[in-house]
Amino acid sequence: MNPDFAIVLNFKLKSAKDVDADFLVQTARNIGARAVSVDAQQTAFKKACAKYTIALVDAETIKESCDLVPADAVAKLVANRKDGQKTIINIPVTDNGKLSSETETMLKQINNWMHLFGHAFNEGEPCTLKAAQNNAFVLQNRHVHYQKYLFVKAPLPEAIKVQGLANKPNRIEMIEHRTELDFTFADNELSINLKDVPESDFAWQVIRIQEHRPEDDIKETKY
Q1: What domain of life does the native source organism fall in (predicted)?
Q2: Do 133 and 50 lie in a common domain?
């Protein structure tokens, strides 16, 4: 399965009637999921997936899936991604083709978090960099390795250290507020100042670390 499929919504449809495939696939797209699976109505979902550019995964290939509740939804997603794993979420569809209120609440929480951090979450993969603090870890963008993502759980420390960088980063910022952060770099250790970071409602924050890029070596053209 494509490693960019960090979230797969596994719709349970066998007892449902009047299923709106378009609505369900759009729901998946809206929360940042890039794939869905179904146990019925393949034809309708193929059409909807093509419309929203969402992959339709064969349900028979799914070996592990989970039931999430609003209280731990994002925490479960983050824990799995830290280990380089996807999260396949069971989504029961009611008899009348709707989603339960608990499911809607859970998806809303995921959507709110993914709206800000979905790019880092979907395209991040484990790397050799290490965060010196507990409740923090680093992923790298699987497509452009010069971008690293530092996931940090609240409450944030006044400073956080990352070990293993070969070169001084070009820029470091909080993704949520696009706040550029002060940092120091010496002996392959990065120390990021978080003392004045704006407060957030999210338990998990993500910091973008941008290293030297190939385009940084392109000389300015003068006319």
Answers
A1: Bacteria
A2: no
Strands (E), 13-114: 35-38, 55-56, 87-92
Quick one: pLDDT at residue 221? 57
The residue range of the domain holding 117 is 7-124
The separation between the first and the last C-alpha atoms of the chain, rounded to the nearest angstrom, is 48
Residue with token string 């890029």: 213
Measured at the CA of 148, the angle between CA 143 and CA 151, to 5 degrees, comes to: 125
**Residue 138 and residue 149 in contact, taking contact as beta carbons nearer than 8 Å:** yes
Confidence (pLDDT) at 65: 86
Regarding whether 163 and 66 lie in a shared domain, the answer is: no
State the Cα–Cα distance between residues 207 and 92, nearest whole angstrom. Answer: 34
Return the bridge partners of 88, or none.
8
pLDDT of residue 218: 65
The continuous run of DSSP H or E covering 208 comes out as strand 204-210
Contacts of 41 (CB under 8 A, 6+ apart): 13, 19, 21
Under-70 pLDDT residues of the chain: 214-223
